[in-house]
Automatic annotation (TrEMBL):
Residues 17-63 form the GGDEF domain. This is Putative diguanylate cyclase. Coiled coil: none annotated. It holds the Pfam family GGDEF. It comes from the Bacteria. One of its GO terms (molecular function) is diguanylate cyclase activity. It comes from Limnospira maxima CS-328. PANTHER family: DIGUANYLATE CYCLASE DGCM-RELATED, REGULATORY COMPONENTS OF SENSORY TRANSDUCTION SYSTEM.
Length: 63
């Protein structure tokens, strides 16, 4: 993931484009993951990712 992030950060720098980076936290996610398992946690992460993708402009890249 770190290599992918570095790659995505280089493009705007090279093309002198603006860049925004959002880092978030899902409250109580570790407890959910521990109780219900990693498969259920993956479902939650995918649902959050879909929600965020639909909520923001289609311009740019999402990780």
């Amino acid at each position: 993931m770190e290599q992918s992030l570095v790659r995505h950060l280089e493009r705007p720098k090279e093309q002198q484009e603006p860049l925004s980076l959002i880092i978030g936290d899902i409250d109580y996610f570790k407890g959910f993951n521990d109780r219900w398992g990693h498969q259920a946690g993956d479902v939650v992460l995918k649902a959050v990712s879909r929600f965020l993708t639909k909520s923001y402009s289609p311009i740019g890249y999402y990780l």
